[in-house]
Amino acid sequence: MNLKGKVAYITGGTKGIGYGVAQSLLQLGMKVAISGRSIEGVSQAAKSLGDETTVLGIPSDVSKLTDEVNAVQVVLEKWGQLDFVLANAGVGHFAPVDEMDESEWHQMINVNLNGVFHTLKASVEALKKSEGYYMTLASLAGTNFFAQGAGYNATKFGVVGFTQAAMLDLRKYNIKVTTIMPGSVATHFNGNEPSTKDSWKIQAEDIGKLVVDLLLMNPRTLPSKIEVRPTRPDLK
Question: Phi then psi for 179, rounded to 5 degrees?
Fold first, then answer.
């Protein structure tokens, strides 16, 4: 895929991994739409990424299909096509299963799991036209369970299963589908404030480089599920 002039839509793109991926795509000449739940946050992030000719900020709650349908429509009205979608939005709450709050459970299901379906459902017809690429941001928590992670594990296991099945459904349309499963990443996730203490972790720009490499790969080859982890977690 020649990326110059191609159009991307990234959910949860106001900070962290989504923002880092947006930066990487813009550097290669793509046009990028990012979304988030906060109008102020989306506007501020879009403005910091570039001007309105190449960057578009859209308020959208991925837990609502209507929001995602609207977001994709806004992208198509502005740029006329959609070539790449990254379903990146996610939340995490961690507690022993017997202490888990019901509202936190449902929020994780609605954002992490329902959200990836809503984003794909909203964008799939545009991706058929462009023979584009759909990626989800899962986690190593989608294959490695851990104490106090029942809700998060359930959603990320679900994202991995959903994405791999979608890959089989959509490849007949020449749509490529991949799930990326990172370990520890230096982001604001779960209340973290990135600093030098996170230097041992994967950085957002590393995921951005990975996404670019996937987009540039010969279309005959599809890395459909990718695990990526810090090289030296012992340095934390």
Answer: -115, 135
